[in-house]
Specification:
This protein is 25% helix and 23% strand. It is α/β, with parallel strands linked by helices. The strands form 3 sheets. The protein has a 7-stranded mixed sheet with strand order 3-2-1-6-9-10-11, with helices on both faces. It is globular and about 40 Å long.
């Protein structure tokens, strides 16, 4: 199955979820994430503000805002800037995603953990994104622990990785935590 086929299949499966299933899945996935030793020791975490069809990050962001240093990405041309998360300083940005405002960008070297969105993952940490390469460009330049999160059905048998694709170190779904490779931090 190629990346476009995977995107279509996952999109169709997401459309079948009801609000309760979405909520339960997000609670389960982020509870698993919060149990990681790496999460306990990470103070600078880049998350993402979820789109309606993505595993919701809202409860996670609200829970840890003010306790951990949370950051969100903001599209800047073909790259992502990293800015501190403050729910009062969000605006609709590129691709209709809530993004942080301001000029207080953070160097990627500050980040210890990145919660990476994707359309799908495999057990080797390969991922299918939305096809624009924003996260691949960001992930190439960091040694932070990369954690992919998603629904169980977003875990597929195999993804044909291309040379520019950057895999994640851990994949977490409602029922599984898969350590794909050790971080070289």
């Amino acid at each position: 199955m190629n990346k476009d086929q995977i995107r279509r299949r996952v999109k169709a499966r997401k459309s079948l979820l009801d609000d309760n299933e979405r909520l339960r899945a997000a609670e389960s996935v982020f509870e698993r994430l919060q149990q990681l030793a790496a999460f306990a020791v990470s103070n600078h975490i880049l998350a993402y503000h979820s789109l309606p069809d993505e595993l919701s990050t809202l409860a996670f962001l609200n829970r840890w805002h003010g306790t951990k240093n949370l950051y969100l990405p903001r599209v800047n041309g073909v790259n992502l800037d990293i800015l501190p998360y403050n729910p009062a300083n969000l605006r609709i940005g590129a691709f209709h995603i809530d993004e942080p405002t301001g000029t207080d960008t953070t160097d990627v070297d500050t980040i210890e953990m990145i919660i990476v969105p994707a359309v799908a993952y495999d057990a080797h940490g390969n991922r299918v994104g939305r096809g624009r390469g924003f996260y691949d460009r960001l992930l190439q330049s960091t040694r932070a622990l990369k954690v992919g999160v998603g629904y169980d059905f977003q875990l597929v048998d195999e993804i044909d990785a291309e040379p520019h694709d950057v895999p994640v170190d851990i994949v977490i779904t409602e029922s599984r935590t898969i350590i794909t490779r050790r971080s070289k931090r």
